[in-house]
């Protein structure tokens, strides 16, 4: 792992810096990338810094420098490429060539499925979020309100507003210090985590109505196919919150939500409440994530996919009962 001193030295030595994260950026990915960019701009104004991400959620557009995000690669060779909240090189999507062409590469991440990549890496799977880890690498005295705001958003989203089991004493201390920078925590929590659009409520309602349980109620799943999404004009951004609502169903150990992204190809999200390691299952399909929150892409019919996943979940549940 890198020390704070090493990390800041890498930033200081580079004249041109590219920052990116995983495809379909969530709160932690968006927050960590924008926070790092602002931290560099605040303290080394002479440096050229560019964030590369796919389009972010509308509710994140209030973040400082969100309007400066590039959505396409510029094919330049950067002195330094910092990869935030990304478990593997392929998850950088269209920006992986920029990563490969950079003179030096750093990965900062907290996914348990990340085996480490880049010339230098800082991976702590017990960290609540990449934003928490990134804050630990920054000189706190040099963190502005704008940087703190982006970091706080990432921590809020990856901890489910501090209620997930990845929330630790260190998480709360970091969040408290960020609040002291003047972060508007009420706005961030209400407007970017709890607020739902009319479309999101429609999707959630349908997903809950058509959900099914298996293994005596220990597993719940719901799915949406392309034809339904196209009929209603739903996009992937409208699916936020579905998996988390499924997860809190009483008696459920694992929640699964899948939606079709191409004919017979589904994006799968899994959440675990207790014993099941869903990251281990996602990894079998080329995905990854955290012990209790992971995802992957699988080809097949909904019935086949669910049958495969439930069989793997049952193995883990049976193993726990034997203990």
Structure commentary:
This protein is of the alpha/beta class. The protein has twelve helices and eleven strands. The protein has helices spanning 4-13, 27-43, 96-101, 130-137, 145-159, 169-179, 185-194, 198-209, 226-232, 242-247, 278-283, 302-322; strands at residues 16-21, 48-52, 80-84, 104-109, 120-123, 212-214, 219-224, 254-262, 265-272, 288-289, 293-299. The strands form two sheets. A six-stranded mixed β-sheet has the order 6-7-8-9-11-10. Strands 2-1-3-4-5 form a five-stranded parallel β-sheet. Helix 2 packs antiparallel against helix 5 (145-159), helix 5 runs antiparallel to helix 6 (169-179) and helix 5 (145-159) packs across helix 7 (185-194). The longest helix has 21 residues, at 302-322. The mean pLDDT is 95.
């Amino acid at each position: 792992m890198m020390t704070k001193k090493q990390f800041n030295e890498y930033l200081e030595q580079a004249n041109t810096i590219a920052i990116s994260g995983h495809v379909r950026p969530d709160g932690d990915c968006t927050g960590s990338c924008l926070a790092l960019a602002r931290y560099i701009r605040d303290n080394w104004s002479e440096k050229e810094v560019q964030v590369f991400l796919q389009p972010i959620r509308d509710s994140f557009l209030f973040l400082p420098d969100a309007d400066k995000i590039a959505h396409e690669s510029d094919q330049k060779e950067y002195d330094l490429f910092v990869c935030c909240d990304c478990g593997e090189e392929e998850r950088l999507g269209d920006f992986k060539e920029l990563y490969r062409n950079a003179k030096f590469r750093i990965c900062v991440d907290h996914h348990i499925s990340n085996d480490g990549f880049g010339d230098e890496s800082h991976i702590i799977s017990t960290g609540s979020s990449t934003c928490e880890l990134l804050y630990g690498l920054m000189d706190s005295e040099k963190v502005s309100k704008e940087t703190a705001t982006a970091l706080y958003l990432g921590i809020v989203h990856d901890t489910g507003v501090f209620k997930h089991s990845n929330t630790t004493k260190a998480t709360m201390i970091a969040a408290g210090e960020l609040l002291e920078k003047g972060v508007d925590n009420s706005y961030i929590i209400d407007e970017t985590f709890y607020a739902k659009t009319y479309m999101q409520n429609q999707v959630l309602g349908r997903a809950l109505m058509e959900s099914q349980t298996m293994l005596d109620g220990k597993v719940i799943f719901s799915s949406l196919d392309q034809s339904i999404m196209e009929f209603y004009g739903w996009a992937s951004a409208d699916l936020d919150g579905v998996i988390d609502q499924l997860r809190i169903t009483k008696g459920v150990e694992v929640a699964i939500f899948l939606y079709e992204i191409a004919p017979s190809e589904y994006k799968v999200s899994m959440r675990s409440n207790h014993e099941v390691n869903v990251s281990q299952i996602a990894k079998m399909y080329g995905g990854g994530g955290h012990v209790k929150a992971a995802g992957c892409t699988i080809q097949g019919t909904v019935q086949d996919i669910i049958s495969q996943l439930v069989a793997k979940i049952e193995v883990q549940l049976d193993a726990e009962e034997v203990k």
